[in-house]
Each structure stands twice: as C-alpha cells, then as structure tokens.
Amino acid sequence: MNNSTIWHRLAAIDSRILYLALLVMVAVPLLRPIGLPLVILDEVRDTLALIASFPEGSVVWLASEVAATNAAELRPMITAFARYLVMQNHRIIIGGFWTDGCNLARIWLDPIFEEMGAVYGVNYVNLGYRPSSTSVLDECRKDIINAYSDRDIAGRKLSEMPVMAGVTKASDIDYLVCMSPGTPGTSTYISAWRATGEVDVIIDCPTSGMYTTAGNNYQAGITKGLVGGLNGSAQVEQLIGYPGKAIRGMDAQGTGHFAILLYLIIGNIGYYQIRRMDREAKEHAGG
Amino acid sequence: MRRTVPLILSFTAGILMILDSYFKIPIINNFATDYLMRSISVSVAWAAGLGSLNLIRLHIRHISSKRQNYQFSYVLIGVWLFMLTCGIFLQGNTANPFYQFFYSNIQVNLSAAVYSLASFYLASSCYRAFRARSVESTVLLVSAAIVMIGSVPVGAAIWSGFPAIQGWLLKIVNDSVIRGWSIGLTLGGLSQSVRNLVGIERGHLQAGE
Q1: What value of ipTM does the predicted structure carry?
Q2: What topology is assigned to A42-243 in CATH?
Q3: What pTM was computed for the model?
Q4: Helix segments in B90-200, DSSP class H
C-alpha cells in the first residue's frame, strides 16, 4: 500500500503549517480590515430599543462578569454597552463576581466614561469584587450598601455618592446588563434577582460559547435582551455609531472560521479518499 | 458523631433556606440572610486562602525534592508573594498604579494569550479528528460548519442563506435540545439535593475515612 499519495499527504499536514496558515488568515484582516457588511439581528436591535425605552436617570446594574481569558469577546461588548448606557444618561452600577471583573471594568471603562463626560460617583460607580455571588446578591435584596460594607472598589463611601441616591435594595434597580462567560453569570442573577421578583429586565450578553444556551432563556422571556459574542458586540458598535474593536475583529473571526472550515474539508477529503483506496486494495487482495 | 452532627447541620440549614425561599417569615428570612448566606462568603474567603497556601505548599515540596522543572516553582512563589505584598501593603491596595501596572500589563495579557492559543489547537484538532465516519458524525459536521460560517459576515457574503440556516439551527434545533437537557439537569439536581438533605447521600461526609 502506497502511503505517499496526495491523499495521504492531504490527511497528514504538519500542525505547524496549519498554525501558520491560521495565524496569517487571522492577522491579515486585523492589519488590513476587509469591512464586510454585518447582518444585524432583530434581537440586538430590540435589546438596544429596550434600553432606550427606560427614562433618563434609570438605574442599571452592569454586571462585569469578565476575565482576561474572554476579553477578546467581552471587552468590546462591555465597552459598547458602557457607551450606550452613558448616551442614555442612565445611572450605572458596576458589580461583578469574577475575581478580575470589576478591576478590568475599571481599566477598560474608566477612560471611556471620562471621554464621554460621565463623572464617577454621579453617573457611575464600581462596587468592586466580593466573594460569593449567592450571598452578596441575596443580601442586596435587602440592602445593597450594607452588602458592600458601604465601600466602592477604592474604599470610598457608597452612601455619599449621588449615583446611589434612592438605590437601597435590588428592587430599586431598573434593569440589568450582564456579561456572561459562564458562572457566575446571567444564570446567577436570574436565580438571585429575577426569580425572586427584584429585577424583571435582564439583558444577557454571553460569549459565543454561552450563546448557544442563552437563547433558551431569551426565547422563554426570562431574559428580555440578548446580544451574543463578538458578532453581537460588533452589531451594537454599528448601531450606536461607535465602530471599534468588535467590528475590526469580525473580519478576522470570519477568516478564522473560514480557515477552520477549509481544514475540515481538506481533512475529510483526505480521509474519504484513503478509506476508498483501502477498501479497493482489500477487494483486490480478496478477489 | 462525625456523621450525625454534619447531617443535622446540613438538614437544618437546608430546611431553613427552603423556608426562606418560599415563605415570608421574618425571623427565618433574617436568619437565612444574616447568618447562613454570609457564612458562604466567609467559607469562600477561607477557601481562597486555603487554596493559596495549598498551592505554595505543593510548590515548596517541588523545590525541596527537586522535581522536573522545579525552577518554575520559584517563579510562581516569587510572583505570588510579590503581588500579594503589593496588593496588601501599597497605598490604595489593588488600586495602586504599581499593582495595576503589573496586573494589566502582565497578568491580563498572559491570560488572554494562553487562552487564545486554544484556537490553534482547536483548528488542528478539527482537521485531524472531525471526520465524517458515520451519518451522525456527518450531520454534526455539516451543522457545525453551517453555524460557524453563518455567524460571521464572510458567510453572508458567500451566500445570504447561511445566516438564516444558522439561526434555524440555533433557535429551533439547539434551543429545544438545551431546554430538554436543562429540565433533566434541574430535576436531577433537585433529587440529588433531597438525597443530601435527608442524609441518603453521604459520600461528602466520608473524607479521611
């Protein structure tokens, strides 16, 4: 049996060649964006319309459940939403139960808030990380200030901040926007605040991986908005008129997906042909 | 005794939490929030400390027995001590610019880089392992390919039907399956909780025996 046919070579390409090809296919559109048009989903359009339906001064809990590992998808997402929430003049309370979540929000969002003229303590506040989402969220049902020991991420008094005026418990929050790479994430807030009737409107912003399960809650009406993955972030960026990293990243994601699809096809062509040749060889040997 | 006391404690705590969820009884609601729920925060904080100490103990053992690549254990312990010291003793703690510099320029970037490497392994494994060996695997392969290509602009540019088929696969086929298994998962979790609560399941009490 000849093992050096084109089909054998096709089915056994060196991993380093595959890595290099993928790197080139992802890097080129990042350096020279193609600018393919986005398909805007109804769910993204509806989500932004829902946020716009809340009056100025509404209180939004921006759940920064992010980490460096999902920054590629959720950084553009939380950035686009932060911009949009400031544009709506809503009061933003940033909380999070991933250890890096609130710190990353500070690094990523503070320059954006500053650029858009939002004032810390007046238009937004960052509560900082607290261990155990279940107990903190449960305590917030009674007293948010107490649950956070009356201190924000930098140790300043929450009770003296105008942004917290009239916000004493979870039911004072008008709606929630949750970045969700897993648990803690949207499901945590659903159990803690949605199921208990504290917050009715939850907008789910999962990673692409979590998007496959998030659709279920959205379809059932448990979450009222859904924007998923880098694709969703790019759509938000386009709709609010602030093209950023997500739109640039979509070209690279597209060519990356295309590369993986090519690998699938090439690998399967090689596999199919080798299997056919093996079968024929056996028939010849037997006949 | 070693089993009975934890069983009584977990049964009492469980019943109180169930009552707290379904009834408005101020004395139980307050007890559940002020003591039981807060004890979770305390446990989590202890677990973080315990985990750190355990990690350091493990790496000290690596160094003392000079296991393979033990030099990296020095790096881990050194970095752990450095960040811990900065976070606790510098003015402003983790908000201190010195701490933030190391955090945002090293930890964040390294974490993102390591995670990004997974995409290369994923691409390689797709090529090597994702084979149309049977009807089922062919259906899976075709669905995966359509969802993948339909979720990016290049898919719509190739054929406008890709996003529509991808949407149908996700919203109809996928959501139905997810709903089915999530209901099953919840029922399973519920029955497991009842078994733990009433003491039928005692595996978690057998540590050290």
Answers
A1: 0.83
A2: Rossmann fold (3.40.50)
A3: 0.89
A4: 97-102, 108-129, 135-150, 153-158, 161-168, 175-198
